Amino acid sequence: MHQKPDADAMGSALGLYHFLIQFGHSITVISPTNWAEWLKWMPGCQDVIDYEYNPEKGNAALDRAEWLFCLDFNTLSRTRSMAVKLRKLSCTKILIDHHQEPESASFTYGISDTAKSSTCEMVYDVIIESGHSDKINREMAACLYAGVMTDTGSFRFPVATAAVHRMVARLKDTGLNHSKIHENLFDNFLENRLRFTGYVLQHKMDIFYEYNTALIAIPWKDLVRFEIKTGDTEGLVNYPLSIKGIKMAALIIDRDEEVKCSFRSKGDFDVNTFARKYFAGGGHFNAAGGHSGESLEQTVQRFMAAIKENSSQLQ
Ligand code: 5GP
Ligand code: MN
Fold first, then answer.
1. Where are the alpha helices (DSSP H) in the chain?
2. Atom 12, ligand 1: which residue's CA is nearest?
């Protein structure tokens, strides 16, 4: 899965784990980095290796591997420090992913489909097409539901197709308690996160109506002050899109080791191309990310120049 995994990355990996384990395979799930507190309820999560924290254990598992499933990322660089090791591995590498422009040469084979809502939906399709739908159990359902629900914005984005709803119906047949999963993911934060959100929306959000764009830029010192942890800023970028007329929202955060950018759009502005062109990133048409080695101020300046260059598409 990709670094700093979200519910789709972690859910697809653990969903596949709960499937393959039933055939007697020996499976190890590895995350390139640590993950948010609010993913820790997922069945199997306690055994996932944090590669950054424990590279020896991760490398030992990778050296033993005959097959490597690469889930919810399109280029090996999305696995951060693990990428060096992955490039050297000669085992069969199978990609299952829905991001644009996969680095095909890095994978032996696989499925890349940007029309799919989530990698969790793709893992579900693999299970159905394998003819083993009888193996779908409640643990797997919880993991796959979490990813498909969050990647579709709780089933509101256009990618929430009839097939997605049929998948959810099938997962419900296992006895899946979906409302508990919403609670685990959305009603499970500490007070500081909500205070931080309020502070940021009040003091760190700028709206540029001439470009129908909103920017939230957060300095490192604010992350420290509010004791912000991995995952606490997830979802923040979506708030400005609730303002009438806003077509693009950007979140730029100084994470100390790098400046991380998130972009979201409504309608026909392509943030995948935008993130790729200006911020060494990528993702999907309406949701993408990137990063910069420059300071927060320089990154904000680069962003301002970029929206000026794209003003015709943003108006
Ligand atoms: P987020 O803004 O939530 O970090 O990411 C939004 C989407 O863009 C996700 O699908 C994520 O995988 C992708 N993404 C985020 N950062 C990067 C990046 O630096 N490079 C690429 N290629 N994709 C990214
Ligand atoms: Mn995904």
1. 7-20, 55-64, 83-88, 119-129, 138-151, 162-172, 178-186, 191-203, 220-225, 271-279, 296-309, 311-314
2. 283
20 class by beta-carbon count within 10 Å (0-12 exposed, 13-18 middle, 19+ buried): middle
**Mutation pick for ligand 1 pocket among 78, 157, 253, 276 (CB with most ligand atoms within 8 Å):** 78
Q: What confidence score (pLDDT) does residue 230 get? A: 87
What CA–CA distance (Å, rounded) separates 132 from 116?
Answer: 21
Q: Does domain 191-314 have CATH number 3.40.50.2300?
A: no
The whole model's pTM is what? 0.95
Q: How many angstroms does the Cα of residue 140 sit away from the middle of ligand 1?
A: 25
Question: How confident is the model at residue 53, as a pLDDT?
Answer: 98
Domain ranges of the chain: 7-186, 191-314
- CA 209 / ligand 2 centre spacing (Å): 30
Tell me, in angstroms, the distance from the centre of ligand 2 to residue 21's CA: 23
Does 281 sit in the ligand 1 pocket, CB within 6 Å? yes
CATH number assigned to the domain with residue range 7-186, chosen from the 4 options 3.20.20.70, 3.40.50.300, 3.90.1640.10, 2.60.120.10: 3.90.1640.10
Across the chain, which has 315 residues, the per-10-residue mean pLDDT values are: 98 98 98 97 98 98 98 97 97 97 96 98 98 98 98 95 98 98 96 98 98 98 96 96 98 96 96 98 96 97 98 96
Assess whether the C-beta atom of 284 lies below 6 angstroms from ligand 1: yes
Task: Say how far apart CA 286 and CA 274 lie, in whole Å.
Answer: 10
User: What ligand 1 atom has the least distance to the C-alpha of 74?
Assistant: 22
Ligand 2 centre from 61 Cα, in Å? 24
Ligand 1: residue whose CA is nearest its atom 19:
290
133 CA distance to ligand 1 middle (Å): 31
